[in-house]
């Protein structure tokens, strides 16, 4: 920000006025009180410091005001995220997604089963029973914990193959994300028998005109957004999912997940995390735009938990230079890989980082490079943290409350503080009370057979 002056102060008040009227567009007085469609969006690992950091990362430094982000526009409340007592106060993505999908707290690792491993009906299963369409669009594999808990049941999030198999019975209309590794040809043939179109290349998505579709665009998770700056994968998948699902007159429930915010948080990688936040923000704006044209659609956005204990400023220094991150050209992981491969690596790294390391910093990178890609990756992240003054307290999750954002009919239900299970219970209460008489939808899938209990490691 530059120093204040009268002109920019006037601009601030004008922008406040315009943002206030802008916010009203999302809740026109003629909107129905009960939504026909529900879009729930989860920023995996997106604790409150991520949305604040994203605001300063996005700030235009040539203006007096700090511009609002989509998160600032849509913020309505907060939510606690703790799992069932057996797992303490810090949740994993599986227990948190189970809470968001069913309204029931369970143990870390649970995929929509309770602490006694009994299956719990999910928002999407209940929506299906009432004749609605369902879909997921995510940047992780589609059978990762968050989408899995909305669609299926298993005593362990680690049972990726069983979860992939179980998706056959979910009758979901749109499945978009990564995960080719878990869907072998024999399984895809069964999806084809059920009328699914299978896509393995992102460019095929544009031509799809009708559900059902299963699009798997990577072996496991999609590449980092920072390494594919023009791909706009999540907003493209979100737009397509809205187009396909809205063909059902009975309405739809769509889950969109910015899955890799969490993965970047586990890696304590601020440059990659901010690019993932930007991709998620763009996807939210796609839904925001859809709601402006379809005032029967409710959007609720939240996070499942915080990851990494990100701090904006660190080490006693009152400073955060997130603007520097905009010049970073690739993930530290990718920069390290390319820097190992080239001789003139120092100028290459400077070009990729958008700044020239000092002599001391260059020496540290040089020492790290001699120890291989992984150590160099770590050294680059440490350098970026030091330049931006970014702090981290954990390579795992933390127990802070998360934010809740909403727009559209019944958005006011989500105002104020609530528990993550309340979010699910409110959404479930907004579903139509009865199945349409013409519906012949299948019942919710049966749970997987009980298998041996395993201790859950803290997975992404
Ligand atoms: Zn995680």
Tell me about this structure.
The chain has 16 helices and 14 strands. With 460 residues, the protein is α/β, with parallel strands linked by helices. The chain has 2 domains: 34-311 and 395-429, Alkaline Phosphatase, subunit A, CATH 3.40.720; 320-390, Diphtheria Toxin Repressor, domain 2. Helix 12 (332-341) packs across helix 15. The model is unreliable at 1-28 and 439-459 (pLDDT under 50). Bound molecules: zinc ion (ZN). Residues 45, 93, 262, 266, 307, 397, 460 line the site of zinc ion.
Number of helices: 16
Tell me the CATH topology of the largest domain. Answer: Alkaline Phosphatase, subunit A
**Proportion of strand residues:** 5-15%
What are the bound molecules? zinc ion
**Global mean pLDDT:** 90
The total of beta strands comes to 14
Q: What is the level-2 CATH architecture name of the largest domain?
A: 3-Layer(aba) Sandwich
Our Rg estimate from Cα atoms comes to 22 Å
The spatial strand order of the largest sheet comes to 5-6-4-3-7-1-8-13-2-14
